[in-house]
Every structure is written in structure tokens, then in C-alpha cells.
Amino acid sequence: MKYINNKFTIEKISVETVAKKFKTPAYCYSYSKLKENVENFKKNFKSFAPLICFAIKSNSNINLIKEIKKFGLGADVVSKGELMAAIKAGINPKKIVFSGVGKTNDEINYAIDKKILLINAESISEIKEIEKIAKRKNKRIQIGIRLNPNIDAKTLSQISTGKKENKFGVNNKTFFEIIKYCKYSKYIDLKCLSVHIGSQILDHKPYEKTLKIIEKILEKTNHNFEFIDLGGGMGISYSDKSKKLSYVKYNIAIKKFLKRNKLKVIFEPGRSIVGNIGFLVSKITYIKKSEKKNFIILDAAMNDLMRPALYGAVHKILPSIKKSKNSKKPCEFVGPICESTDKFTLIKNFQELNEKDLIVICDVGAYGMSLSSNYNIRPKPVEILIKGSKIKVIKKRQMYKDLI
Predict the structure, then answer these.
(1) Nearest partner of 73 among 254, 266, 223, 293, judged by Cα
(2) Domain count of the chain?
(3) Strand (E) positions, 37-129?
(4) What is the rounded CA–CA span in Å between residue 72 and residue 365?
(5) 159 and 267 housed in the same domain
């Protein structure tokens, strides 16, 4: 992704070409960046060959999941719908892990019938529900227990999942009670200890702390776990100033852990696989000038990209064509929805813009389309995959007739 002759280009396709052919707003994904991310992840942890289960919640486009499956990845799912999507995309059920605090009877039934690798349980009530269904089917089901290690991952409070005040996982006391319970069950095969401490983590230290806590837990139990599911949460750089997570240091910490604990590692990356492969191309509908700033009103809105409104997340915004002259006032990029939170970012020194110009919102591959909605009865954008000079529509733009 770079400027060629001052035009923003994804692989060999300019966003001007995308807008002309597919209109705006449009989600564009780079195949080469996807491949690079997967290969980089595998390379950094190849010494212990983890099972990499792509977190479907980060991007649930079935055609994109099909591409991810070709790299040999499994799937981490948190609903029956995501499990159905993973299976439809061709992912091997023995590479699928089902996470989440509120799996229904229907979802557990479906997961058992599909013979997935693990159901990662998060409460004794859930385990009893799994056991009840397994007994009725006369099957022994492989499960994991999600431990809440009470670790602050130093990320946004809205995406923190490993502190004791969060709803996820169980505390140490309950963890040991569950081990004891499973020991005497004919229908539950406790295979995995699972953790996931949050999302958009850019420091390896919370992961190191988590491994130390897990090790202490393992020392206090004589249960023979087969897997350690370390979750995901690996962050990406949303700005040029952002620090990067050191896979090298995380890898060293895991290798030390594995020397003392012979376990198979499962990872559940999402954002780190697809976050920076995605771009949202949008057209400027109006420029509304005020005393202190210019409102750049786009045809993309919070229903297309929810993260800024939901988390206060900031995405880099770039012009489709570079110009040398800068705007005299700060530019606030906003959407057309009737909510004050329908805004993307305020930039003090942006280039001069005109109505009908195109802009590119970067790093939207994770939690972009998967969090999108039809709020204000707005159809969802088209999604395209760019591979060199080839463009493939991987999801058509919704039409009003689909909604009304």
C-alpha cells in the first residue's frame, strides 16, 4: 500500500479505480498483506508449531476465511453463526475452538455434533450443561477451562478481558473446583487450560505475567492438560507513533514455559492477521466550514466502521491523491448519521480537500465489517479482495431491497 504517481494504491489497484468501478463506501483487502501477516506469525512461533485458530469475530467474511484456511489455520469461534461460517469456509472441525461465556443449549449441541476440537467453558454451569447434552448423546466431549488470571493488559477498558472485574473466565478457586468435578465425570474430558487477557496488546510483558500465573496454577494441580490456549489479543500499529508488539520476546517467554510444561499451544489471533490488510474507501459528500474547523462529511458512517464511536479508536486517514497545499483549518472527518459520535477523527494539518474527493480510512480489516450494522437503514458496503492487479468481490454491496 503506497502512493504511485501521487495516487493511493493497494497492491496494483488505485482507490480511484475501486471507487469508479464499485462506488463508495467500499472495503478493500490486500491479499499480499494477509499472506505476509500469516507467514510472519508462523515464522515467529515456528519452534513450537502452535495451532493457529483465526478469531472469526475479527472478520467474518466467508470468502476471506476461505483464503485464511488455505494457509492451514483453524478457527476460534464465539457463536453458532461463526462456527457455521468456519465450517462452510472449509476449516477442519478438529482445528476449531469454541469460546464465549454464554453458549446456549443449541450452540453446544451444534458444536458437539460437528465434532470440533474444544469447547472452552467459562463456568461450572456451562460445564454441567455440556455434560447433560453429552450424556444424552452418550459422548465424551473435549473441553477447556478459561482461567481469569486477573492481568491488566494495559489496553482499552472496553476490550480488556483478563481482569477479575471482567465477565470472562473463572478465578483460581473455581478453576480447581472444576478440575475436581471433571475428574469424576464420564462425559467430560478436560484437555485445555485457556486464557485471553484482552485485545490490541502492544507489550509482551502482560503475556509474560500470564504465563507465570499459569505455571503456578499448573504446579498446584496434578491434572494432565494436553493444550494451553493462550488466546490472541496481539495488537497492530494504528498510527506511525504506535509501538509494536515483540513476537520475539513473547516467543522466548513461551519457549521457557514449554521447557517445564509439555503442552501443545493454541493461539487465537484475529487483528494481527487481518487488521492492517483492510481499507475503507469513502467519498466526501460535503465540506461544512465552521469558525474553528472544517467538517469533512463522508459517505461512510459509524454503521460502516463502529470502532471510533464504540471505543474512541483512531484510524489513520489518508487522501486518495496527494496534494501539496494544506487546509488552513483543522479537518474533522464525520459521517452522515444523526449521532454526535458518528465521527472518525480530527486532523490539524490535512491537505486541502474538495467535495467529491476520495479518502482512505486505514487498518479496518479487523472489527470493521464484523461490527457494521444497518443503523439508519443504511446498506452495508461492498467488500473486495485485491491480489496484484486482480479484484475479486468477496461480498456484494447490500441493496435497499435487501433491507426493506
Answers:
(1) 266
(2) 2
(3) 51-55, 74-77, 96-98, 118-121
(4) 20
(5) yes
Same domain, 139 and 67: yes
Residues 187 and 314 in one domain: no
**DSSP letters along 150-216, please?**
----SS-GGGB-SSTTSSSSB-HHHHHHHHHHHHT-SSEEEEEEE---BSSB--SHHHHHHHHHHHH
In the prediction, which pLDDT does 254 show? 96
Domain boundary among 238, 272, 306: 272
Q: Which domain holds residue 246?
A: 31-272
How far apart (Å, rounded) are the C-alpha atoms in residues 147 and 169? 5
Give the residues across from 385 on adjacent strands: 29, 392
CA 59 to chain centre: 6
Domain identity same for 203 and 264: yes
Do 119 and 100 fall within a single domain?
A: yes
C-alpha cell of residue 96: 476449531
Look at residue 157 in the predicted model and tell me its pLDDT. 55
Residue 5 is predicted with a pLDDT of 94
d(CA 139, CA 263): 25
pLDDT tens-place string over residues 135-154: 999 999 999 999 988 775 55
Evaluate whether 72 touches 41 at the Cβ level (below 8 Å): no
Query: Does residue 176 share a domain with residue 54?
Result: yes
Q: What is the CATH number of the domain that holds 79?
A: 3.20.20.10
For 66, counting Cβ atoms within 10 Å of its Cβ (0-12 exposed, 13-18 middle, 19+ buried), the class is middle
Which pairs count as long-range contacts for 93-99, CB under 8 Å and 24+ apart, including other chains? 93/117, 95/51, 95/53, 96/53, 97/53, 97/144, 97/229, 97/266, 97/268, 99/146, 99/194, 99/196, 99/268
Domain end call among 248, 272, 296: 272
* Helix (H) / strand (E) containing 295: strand 294-298
Q: CA–CA separation, 367 vs 350, rounded Å?
A: 26
Secondary structure (3-state) at 142: strand
CA nearest 368: which of 39, 11, 64, 14? 64
111 in the same domain as 246 = yes
Q: In the prediction, which pLDDT does 155 show? A: 55
For residue 390, the surrounding DSSP H or E stretch is strand 390-395
My answer on whether 286 and 219 are in the same domain is no
> Which residues are designated catalytic?
338
Q: Are 358 and 322 in contact (CB under 8 A)?
A: no
* N residues, the chain: 404
